[in-house]
UniProtKB/TrEMBL annotation:
This is Neutral zinc metallopeptidase. It is found in: Membrane. Keywords: Membrane, Transmembrane, Transmembrane helix. It comes from Saccharopolyspora ipomoeae. It is a single-pass membrane protein. The keyword Metal-binding does not apply. The keyword Membrane applies. Residues 36-69 have a biased composition (Low complexity). PANTHER family: INNER MEMBRANE PROTEIN, PUTATIVE MEMBRANE PROTEIN YPFJ. Residues 26-80 are annotated as: Disordered. Its main location: membrane.
Amino acid sequence: MGIVLAAVTVFGIGTVGAVAASISANRAEERSYQQTAPSSSAEPTTSETTSETTTSEETTTSEEPSSTAQPVLKLGDNPINVDGSGAVTTPCPLPAFDTDVAAQDAFYQAALPCLMRAWEPALEQANLPTDMPRVVTTGSDITTPCGLRTWDQTALYCPQDNTIYMTARYYSEVEGRTEAGVFLGQFAHEFGHALQRLSGINAAYGQASATAQGDAGLELTRRSELQATCFEGMTLAALQNGGVSDEIIFPALRDSAGRGDENSDVDDHGSIQTNSTWVQQGFTKNRVTQCNTWLSPSSDVD
């Protein structure tokens, strides 16, 4: 449901205290995918494994007609950057969390409309689309329009079908993580990429990446990933101010602050210190303009 941002809107400003600067999580997150035409309109299929894939399409597909607004293919000067715009305070009752596929799916399906409500006013104020992404929770390898995602890889947002693919077993079985906040933080990061698609930033990034080479291409990817991380911080602020427990919010922030290229062999997500800075900036300031990584100096996205 659309929210017209004509009345006074209260934006949540999170207070995290001291977010840990680093943890030794070993994850090489997905690269962002260029927004190109899907190779097929068919639904994603899973490979044959013993684990299930769950998606509750009825709870994630809006019955209202899509907005006539269109993404704008710009980066630093994208219209999403409205002064004073942020993620609005959003109550979000979440079910009990567990690491099995069904419980995780119920958690993400409950969180998804909350994230959309938090961001609809900012998108509408910028005259951008508000199409809610879908979420597919899988414990198996899955074929997406963006390629194969194996069960032991991190979560993926695919712009080609506007779907977040949450790989349920990665964080619990590869990293040994069980805290709800870790999973919610990653989900909010992937939702940040969905916001980039809605705004047109993702497609503009894809165009810029097509001609960039070497370090220039990696820097573009870091700018994209760090903006999604900053958007994640904004989302967590909106949920915290809406009543989501600090026992979920703070672990999400600590985990995101500890992610970085020190845990990878590719410099495409930014250092641990840089990730920590951007997630805290999003959380404490909760302004879209404060997440504009595209206008930041290279030293801020290293």
